[in-house]
């Protein structure tokens, strides 16, 4: 039996270990840095490094690395061993404060969007002491931020930390107005629910599309899909169960609070959710979780697919980003309060989120935009590409009453006047959750459901923190110094609700009616990544991030370039893989199918000319016609890829979206059509049925 409390965090240089191993004054200095962001002095850093090294060596580590999150979306590490030469050809194990605090990896191969010319290739990494160091695979990993020599951020952690500061600063201002003078810091907390697929490694290795792209580019549907809905929360298969058990243990060792696991809607699809924590740690942990999901799958002869849409016609995978704000005194700011006064505060924060989401639909949409996620958003299983907010009937009723200066009629209870000094007390929402809403209030937190399964959660949280900070700033500017504070609050709430309730929608977000209704309301419907990205560099967005010190303009323009380039590169790889598979695998197989049919026809004629062979002839005609069309489309696709226009990153991405992707879709449709008509024995790759039901 695993002793969970004993293994939990056993590979983490956490609070307990620090207290145990650091001299008291050093520990205190470090805590100050963690809590208040104060700088560390070198002597202190040396002591911490030395204690970390001793601890890591006891745990079997030989190397250390600065672990960071460049703009590739995955994590990066460069391992250095602790060994340092000493007298007499010997070595000692060393790790200095300097090595702990700052690293200088050669950064020339990481995307920088033109921020860093190759002649000044070095970037530097700087320790984030608010996220604990940990040991993974014999290496002490130190979570770090990654910047260019000019100080521009080249990673996802730096802006995330800056956005945390921004929202904290503004939230504290508001709380002061409510007399919460003991609040000095507000932190965003996040619990990301992660979906994934598990398939057999043997199947995976037979498909170039899975190997190169992480998703299938071809594949006729299996006779059975998810229509019976027998997989969702179903009993775990024994291989999956063994996998999940080991994954939990690996995550627990890393101090990750993996809490729930279950089967998801699609066959072979599963979900893991951790207990929420501070957003920068949640982000680090989610990156580690995705990595461990893949590593542990290998050990079990399986492959974990994190792609947003591994299989056409089967639900894709997303991530639900549960987000809230908590004070250093332990108060969740989205917990509706027990007294009218508490509720005024709750409503101020709620309305800040409502106006933030309404005003900045574009930024939230962009934060979930990727070539992979384009296959999900707007499809029937995922939220639409339109941002809207679900509040639940009770809360929506309260806002409605405030807006109309009406009485608030609480379901089954007394009527209440909603006025200056009498904001209503209301119970936690008990209505059904609306799972079709991209942004739902779920009792004491918001659940943003647009994120793709493979993406880092950093970007969505940077956006959320920054846009809410901006609204809180405007609110604080308006409310500070007002003699009749509650009166001013009421005026503000009423105005905000009136101006922004177009974003609130409690109906079915998957219906076509909603698309039309949303358009009437003036909401954005940015269907693809390429439609969404240009909004990133709109002047008002550049100004917003600058105002809160999250990004400067150069950083944003660089990110915009990187996102577009990544999109184009990804689609290019997929298209190249398709062309290759058609030429080397499918076309030869389709020839074989035709030859087989011809042989049957000839044999029938020879043996007994009066046996009918219309069936074979019909099939042959159909397949021969499809084969010609496949060659034609494949040639056209190849031609596109050889003639990608020169132009801005946006023009190139548009070309991929408008010219390349439609050809890929056509090609797939044709090949899948032949697969459905062909003898199984001829088909060169495992079918959807083989792959999706491969785990017993
Ligand atoms: P479900 O939505 O499936 O009912 P929960 O409500 O328990 O599950 O939470 C889903 C996720 O939201 C979990 O990861 C949980 O830790 C997280 N969560 C709960 N409270 C908060 C909070 N205050 N801030 C951020 N995340 C939270
Ligand atoms: Mg959820």
Mean pLDDT over the residues: 90
Helix/sheet category: alpha+beta
Task: Return the CATH topology of the largest domain.
Answer: Creatine Kinase, Chain A, domain 2
Shape: globular
State the major sheet. 9 strands, mixed
The first-level CATH class of the largest domain is given as Alpha Beta
How big is the Rg? 28 Å
The helix count comes to 22
**Strand tally:** 20
* Integer tally of domains: 3
Within CATH, the superfamily of the largest domain carries the name Glutamine synthetase/guanido kinase, catalytic domain
Instruction: List segments where confidence is low: pLDDT < 50 over at least 5 consecutive residues.
Output: none
Q: How far is the N terminus from the C terminus? A: 25 Å
Ions, cofactors and other ligands present here are: adenosine-5'-diphosphate, magnesium ion
> Could you tell me the strand content as a percent range?
5-15%
Q: Mind telling me which CATH architecture of the largest domain this is?
A: 2-Layer Sandwich
């Amino acid at each position: 039996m695993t002793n969970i409390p004993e293994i939990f965090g056993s590979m983490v240089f956490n609070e307990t270990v620090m207290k145990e191993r650091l001299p008291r004054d050093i520990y205190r200095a470090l805590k100050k840095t963690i809590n208040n962001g104060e700088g560390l002095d070198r002597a202190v850093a040396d002591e911490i490094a030395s204690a970390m090294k001793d601890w890591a060596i006891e745990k079997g580590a030989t190397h250390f690395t600065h672990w960071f999150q460049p703009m590739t979306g995955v994590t990066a590490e460069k391992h250095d061993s602790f060994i340092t030469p000493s007298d007499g050809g010997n070595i000692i194990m060393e790790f200095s404060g300097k090595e702990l605090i700052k690293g200088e990896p050669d950064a020339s191969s990481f995307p920088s969007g033109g921020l860093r010319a190759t002649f000044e290739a070095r970037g530097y990494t700087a320790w984030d002491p608010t996220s604990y160091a940990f040991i993974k695979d014999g290496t002490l990993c130190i979570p770090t931020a990654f910047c260019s020599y000019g100080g521009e951020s080249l990673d996802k952690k730096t802006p995330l930390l800056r956005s945390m500061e921004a929202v904290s600063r503004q939230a504290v201002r508001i709380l002061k107005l409510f007399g919460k003078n003991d609040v000095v810091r507000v932190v965003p907390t996040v619990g990301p629910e992660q979906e994934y697929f598990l398939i057999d490694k043997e199947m995976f290795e037979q498909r170039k599309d899975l190997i190169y792209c992480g998703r299938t580019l071809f594949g006729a549907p299996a006779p059975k899909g998810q229509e019976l809905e027998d997989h969702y929360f179903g009993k775990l298969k024994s291989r999956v169960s063994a996998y999940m058990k080991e994954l939990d243990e690996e995550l627990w060792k890393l101090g990750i609070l993996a809490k729930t696991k279950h089967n998801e809607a699609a066959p072979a699809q599963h979900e893991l959710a951790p207990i929420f924590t501070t957003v920068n740690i949640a982000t680090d942990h989610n990156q580690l979780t995705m990595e461990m999901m893949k590593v542990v799958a290998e050990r079990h002869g399986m492959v974990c697919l994190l792609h947003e849409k591994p299989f056409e016609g089967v639900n894709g995978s997303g991530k639900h980003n549960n987000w809230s704000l908590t004070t250093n005194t332990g108060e969740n700011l989205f917990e509706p309060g027990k007294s009218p006064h508490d509720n005024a505060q709750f409503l101020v924060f709620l309305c800040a989120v409502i106006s933030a989401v309404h005003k900045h639909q574009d930024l939230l949409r962009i934060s979930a935009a990727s070539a992979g996620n384009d296959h999900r958003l707007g499809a029937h299983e995922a939220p639409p590409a339109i941002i809207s907010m679900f509040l639940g009937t009770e809360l929506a009723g309260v806002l409605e009453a405030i807006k109309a200066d009406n009485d608030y009629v609480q379901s089954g209870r007394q009527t209440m006047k909603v006025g200056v000094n009498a904001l209503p007390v209301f119970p936690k929402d008990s209505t059904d959750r609306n799972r079709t809403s991209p942004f739902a209030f779920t009792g004491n937190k918001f659940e943003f459901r647009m994120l793709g399964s493979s993406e880092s959660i950093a970007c969505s949280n940077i956006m959320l923190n920054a846009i809410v900070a901006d609204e809180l700033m405007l609110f604080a500017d308006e409310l500070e110094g007002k003699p009749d504070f509650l009166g001013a609050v009421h005026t503000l709430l009423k105005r905000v609700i009136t101006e922004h309730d177009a974003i609130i929608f409690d109906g079915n977000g998957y219906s076509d009616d909603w698309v039309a209704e949303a358009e009437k309301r003036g909401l954005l419907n940015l269907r693809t990544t390429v439609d969404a990205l240009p909004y990133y560099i709109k002047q008002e967005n550049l100004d917003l991030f600058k105002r809160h010190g999250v990004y400067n303009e150069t950083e944003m323009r660089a990110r915009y370039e990187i996102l577009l380039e990544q999109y184009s590169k990804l689609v290019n790889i997929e298209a190249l893989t398709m062309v290759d598979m058609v030429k080397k695998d499918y076309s030869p197989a389709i020839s074989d199918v035709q030859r087989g049919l011809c042989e049957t026809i000839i044999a029938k004629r020879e043996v007994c000319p009066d046996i009918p062979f219309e069936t074979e002839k019909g099939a042959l005609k159909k397949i021969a016609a499809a084969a010609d069309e496949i060659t034609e489309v494949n040639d056209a696709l190849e031609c596109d890829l050889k003639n990608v226009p020169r132009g801005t990153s946006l023009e190139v991405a548009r070309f991929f979206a408008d010219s390349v992707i439609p050809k890929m879709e056509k090609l797939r449709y044709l090949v899948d059509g032949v697969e459905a008509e062909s003898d199984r024995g001829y088909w060169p790759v495992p079918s959807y049925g083989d792959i999706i039901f491969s785990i017993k």
